Amino acid sequence: MRSQTPLPHDIALQLPLPEWLLILILIVSFLVHILFVNLMVGGSLVTLWYQIKGLKVKEYDVLANEMAKTITVNKSLAVVMGIAPLLTINTLYTIYFYTANSLTGLMWIAIIPLVTIAFLLTYLHKYTWTILENNKGLHISILATACLIFLFIPLIFLTNINLMLFPEQWGTIRGFMSALTLPNVFPRYLHFIFASLAITGLFIFWYFGRKNYGFDQKFQVISLYSVRKGAYAMVLAVSAMQFLIGPVVLLTLPSKGLGWNLILVIIAGATLALPAMYWIFKAITGKPDHIGKNFGKIAVFLSITVVFMVSGRHIYRSNALAPHQKLMAAKTKEFLSASEQAGKNVPAEEAVPSKSSGNGSKGSVLFAKNCAVCHHLENKLVGPPVTEMISIYKDNPQALISWIKKPGRKRMEGPPMPTPANLSDEDRNELAKFILSNNN
Amino acid sequence: MDIPLFHLDWLNNRMLIALIATIHALINHSLAVGFVPLVVWLENKGVINSGSHEVTDLKWDKMVYRMMWTAFIITTTIGAMTGVGIWFSVSLVSPNSIASLIRVFYFAWFVEWTVFVTEVVLIMIYFLTWKKANSSIKAKTRHIKFGWYLSLFSWITMAIIVSILGFMMDPGNWLKEKSLLNGFDNPLYLPQLLYRTPLAMVLGGCFGLFLSAIFTKKGEPNRLIVFRSISKWILLWLPFAIAGAIYYYHFIPTANLANLSVAIGTQSFQDWYDVMWKVILGASSIILITAMIGIWKPKLLHASLITITLILALGFMGLFERVREFIRKPYIISGYMYSNLLREQDYPLYKRDGVLKWATYTSTPKVTEKNKVEAGRNVFMLTCSRCHTTQGVNSIVSVFERMYSSKGKPFNRESMETYINNLHSAREFMPPFPGNQAEVKALVSYIKEIQFTNEVLDGAQQEGIVVNPGQSIESFKKINKR
Questions:
Q1: Are B3 and A372 in contact (CB < 8 Å)?
Q2: Helix (H) or strand (E) run with residue B337 in it
Q3: What's the CATH superfamily of A362-437?
Q4: Contact residues, B window 360-419, toward A, CB-based 8 Å cutoff
Q5: What is residue B266's predicted lDDT score, i.e. its pLDDT?
Q6: I want to staple A273 with a disulfide (CB 3.0 to 4.6 A). Which of A33, A305, B46, B298 is the partner?
Q7: Which site among B97, B113, B404, B467 would you substitute to test the A interface, given the most A Cβ atoms closer than 10 Å to its Cβ?
Q8: What integer pLDDT is reported at residue B265 of this predicted model?
Q9: How far is B86 from chain A (nearest CA, A)?
Q10: How many Å apart are CA A187 and CA A250, to the nearest integer?
């Protein structure tokens, strides 16, 4: 059965900054965040790969160790850089984002312990390199576990970021698994993983090739050329894969957010990747001495591609949500004016009927408001019945008044009596008079 | 109301936040704000106490490095992730309140973030360049300087977040004039900061004592020196922490203060009124004794005493956090939004029409004789579930059974209705019931039902949602066409 499309009202406060500025902050800060996430995920996978190679060629194990040192730095930056986009998406798309979070809540909150465990594992891996020297299987499996977690987390984020775009689907979602199976989640996921590997490839090329890194002093068996060539080959291969998976991502997007603005941006981005890929191909097939020649250009072109893709992602989001956002704004206005109207015509508070209040005196009204919740005329509710109060205090109203002023606990089977707030001395007199007047 | 409600029917939603937030605050205070300056001070001591032919006393330096290593690992994993976890859990459990706060405090949070980025970069520079810095006295001096910068930025991070916490308890002038500066300028800001800063230093000291006991061997001369140094540090800050706590307590708005007696535990522990002061007094005196032994008879300082001191110090702070969380009830944003996430100013609308009518997600837009248990369930989810479960922690059945001391006996409908209608005057820390009379009756029907069926209430994360036809795009378009 198709569910209706919900139309909630928005948070009743202004956005803190102009919308365009928030969008700009969101895109830029997300770009920085995802860069470090890519390096964290891709870096872990490559480290794992190097370490497995290190079982045969010992020096790859050293290379893996060098790579592992970068993961723990990149992961800290990934987290801290994630806060700005998180904050901004919370502000800009409050209702949409929070609804998606809520509908996949258990998996969403599981991100926290899962990432914590993955981080602890990366440290454990890094600091047990010598201790577990003769236990490579165990040592590698620590990293492999971290890798599995790192591979799973993006899936949760993508599921939510995807779900928030489709209010018409919200009514059909039953937990994370059903949100996961919405079209487009998996193609986007593969797109992300390939991007991680591409960016990590470029990072490796730069990181080990730096002059003050001194690769040749640290390594004798493996050459810098072979490491850089391997990194470039990975960039080239996954970029080629992007050309296959990219169209799938586009085709599986529900048509409601598609538009020429989106197609144009995506095609422009993809086109810019082509010369970069050509240069990489030339570098791999050319002379070893020239492998680093076009690196700057390649990095710039691929970075621009990434900027275009991230913008395309935002264009789809804004196309897809615009109609619903417009209706929600109108709905919010309507809700607020209904609320204001209701606030102007509050009916006079009627005393809530209770058996032990009824003669309309000031004391009875006070009793209904402050006491009737726990005290009944002849039955024990929370506290003792009025009849019992009469039997204790009938000859000593002053003691009753002081009890009301500063109550305590008489019977251990019930809770202590809280102090009734906002009563004047006169109110307490009236109350006591009313309570004791029930004596008939 | 307008965001599907995530709900944990056993653990209790607030407990989820409390768990994550308490771990975060404890780590932040004891291993970042209070610990880093202590470490830098100790690192500096190593340089001063070394001979003129060496950069630093290497054995001492290694011990201090190991202490920092522990703090580095914990703060950059559990510390960092529980910080993000506060965001995640609060936006799940209490979406409307955090969404409102973020619109007021966006700028403050943004500034907080830039400070935080600086802090993370500094901690990496400080920790990861430690060994390299031991090559020359110049490098070591620069390294120590970076340590002081790091200490400063850790403190600023806390100073900003405290303004947001203080605001939630007492928004000052913000209710009239919703601007950022007004939020910052709230009366609880300084008292909280003056309490938290020295407390963090004391906690950092207790942690330092604990770690130095682990990283030095008995009989090692450094052990006694480090015990003595850290004890001095603790003794220096302890009076300020106690004075800060008293000063802070003095400033908590009086209406909130009245809640303090129930803040420590649940309803039936109301008579534990002075438990907080006992713990604070107890913890402070143990810390004092430990510090004094540490200074005058460091040899007698046993690892078990140090451990107990650390646990008590953490308990001191944990208790204060719990109390802070509670004293802002019945509000989640004082004077603006109740802890059930409904705005105070929308109450007349809900009282008139019922909460169900305006709920975006409900299977029962209106209470009828036939649907009243299901409607009651929806009302419970909308108005009670942020603080109560049905069968778990602070369950609605158990609070009524305890209140009426009637375990196993069916609840009395009439008295429950009276109670719910007067909720706020009977229990000041609870918000008034927002709905209409039909909804009160439905809610009572539901609670009476689950008293015996023990039915569990699943949140939107498991059950999904049912869209209220009256709050859908389809109906909105129809109405506005007319």
A1: no
A2: strand B337-338
A3: Cytochrome c-like domain (1.10.760.10)
A4: 360-361, 402-405, 412, 415, 418-419
A5: 45
A6: A305
A7: B467
A8: 45
A9: 9
A10: 9
Length of chain B: 482
pLDDT tens-place string over residues A190-239: 999 999 999 999 999 999 999 999 999 999 999 999 999 999 999 999 99
pLDDT higher than threshold 90 for residue A144: yes
A246-260, B255-269, B352-366: least confidently modelled range? B255-269
Give me the residue label for tokens 């768990």: B19
Set of chain A residues whose Cβ sits within 8 Å of the Cβ of B409: none
Cβ-based neighbours of B163, under 8 Å, separated by 6 or more = B108, B183, B184, B186, B189
- Could you give phi then psi for residue A357, rounded to 5 degrees? -130, 140
Q: Encode pLDDT of B444-455 as tens digits.
A: 999 999 999 989
Handedness of CA B1, B6, B9, B11 (dihedral sign): negative
Asked if B92 lies within 8 A of A102 by C-beta distance, the reply is: yes
Average model confidence (pLDDT) across chain B: 88
pLDDT of residue A408: 77
Interface check B88 vs A, CB under 8 A: yes
Question: Is residue A95 over pLDDT 60?
Answer: yes
Q: How far apart are CA B34 and CA A349, in angstroms?
A: 53
Which residues in chain A are classed under CATH 1.10.760.10? 362-437
Range(s) within chain A of domains with CATH label 1.20.1630: 19-328
Tokens describing residue B416: 């429950």
Least confident piece of the model among A92-101, A407-416, B348-357: A407-416
Amino acid at site A193: I
Nearest by CB to residue B103, choosing from A13, A86, A102, is: A13
Q: Which of A26, A122, A357, A381 to mutate to test the interface with B (most CBs of B within 10 A)?
A: A381
Answer whether residue A246 shows pLDDT above 70.
Answer: yes
Helix pair A94-103, A136-163: axis angle to 10 deg:
130
ipTM above 0.85, yes or no: yes
Chain A: nearest CA to B224, how far in angstroms?
29
Q: What is the pLDDT of residue B272?
A: 47
Interface contact B425-A373, CB threshold 8 A:
yes
In this prediction, residue A117 carries a pLDDT of 98
Tell me what pLDDT residue B320 has.
75
Q: Which residues of B touch A421 (CB under 8 A)?
A: 258, 425, 428
Q: Report how far apart, in Å, the C-alpha atoms of B20 and of each of A31, A32, A109, B14, B99 are.
A: 28, 27, 11, 10, 19
Q: What is the pTM of this model?
A: 0.92
Distance from CA of B351 to the nearest CA of A (A): 9
CA gap A283, B284 in Å, rounded: 68
* Residue A388 CB partners (closer than 8 Å, separation 6+): A380
Instruction: For residue B433, give how far its alpha carbon lies from the nearest alpha carbon of chain A (Å).
Output: 13
Domain A19-328 class, CATH top level: mainly alpha
Mean pLDDT for A63-86 is 96
Asked which of A17-26, B127-136, B186-195 is least confident by mean pLDDT, the reply is B186-195
Which three-class secondary structure state does DSSP give residue A72? Answer: helix
Measured CA to CA, the distance from residue B278 to residue B319 in angstroms comes to: 11
Quote the pLDDT of residue B254. 63
Q: Of A339, A357, A379, which to mutate for an interface test with B (greatest number of B Cβ within 10 Å)?
A: A339
Nearest CB to B3 within list A14, A99, A368:
A99
Helix, strand, coil: what percent of chain B each, to 5?
70, 0, 25
**Alpha-carbon span A422 to A416, nearest angstrom:** 19
Please answer yes or no on whether B77 and A335 come within 8 Å at the CB atom: no
Q: Does B345 touch chain A (CB under 8 A)?
A: yes
Share of chain B above pLDDT 90, in %: 61
Chain A residue with the nearest C-alpha to that of B107: A16
